[in-house]
Amino acid sequence: MQQGPTTAPPGSEKHALPCQTPPGSLQDIVSESFVGTPGTVYSGCHAPPSGAPRLTLAVLVGMNAKAAYKLVETIAAHSSRMPVTLFLYGDFVETFPELVTEWAKTFTIGMREGQPFPLGHFTLQAQSWIRMGLVSTIQRLSEVDLQTAYYFPEHVTDAVKSEAKSRGLRIFQPTARFPPRDEKWLLSVANYYKYRDVERVPKALRVIANQLEDKGGIVSLDSDHPDSYMISVFLMDYLSEKSGYNLVSITECLK
């Protein structure tokens, strides 16, 4: 896998704070430096008093580095230069530190757990193990001089909220995600997978648009799903040219 530099928009800079303090003092620094409230779950953007609804785009970066690289590079090259947040596992940061450092020049960096788990199993663990996963990711980010307050858990539970709050982390869940998890929008052979690539693209975009319900919010793409890469350019074209949403950073989303 080629890991060439990501071309950053003019004037861009790292969108996560340099970590200049030991992990023990992380909570206070994070709480003071980021918008939002630690431990609070955000599933949409704050509505502006007037004007278009806000929307922010997020990528859930999995451990398939080749797939993630293709998707992120495609997003970086899009002419809209829309603000995007990348949520990373601690193990990904540890394995690809130079790539993460390069991405941080262009994108806001958020965090996931220390490593992926089979679906549903992360939140079955004891709270101490959930804590360990968060601490691991925070440490991995600090090793590449990054610090974040944005956390995208697999699922939200009381234990997850408690541990996130104690570490100054704001919790994010998407308004619309691809692939969707809500039973109403689940992809099946009959409604999606039996179709050719060219036919699946509009179906995927429609599923995302339907989840948003014209209200804007947080849209997430899972890099481990190959169709996230396939639809990414079409999605960004739609969002930037036709959707009518005000495309904002995750920070502006919370304001």
TrEMBL record:
Coarse class of the protein's main subcellular location: secreted
Keyword set includes Glycoprotein: yes
Entry GO terms, CC: extracellular region
InterPro entries noted in UniProt: MHC-II_Gamma/Thyroglobulin
Taxonomic superkingdom: Eukaryota
Cellular compartments annotated: Secreted
Disordered: annotated segments: 1-22
Keyword tags: Glycoprotein, Secreted
PANTHER family assigned: EXPRESSED PROTEIN (PTHR14093:SF21), HLA CLASS II GAMMA CHAIN (PTHR14093)
Protein known as: Uncharacterized protein LOC109473180
Source organism phylogeny: Eukaryota, Metazoa, Chordata, Cephalochordata, Leptocardii
Gene of this entry: LOC109473180
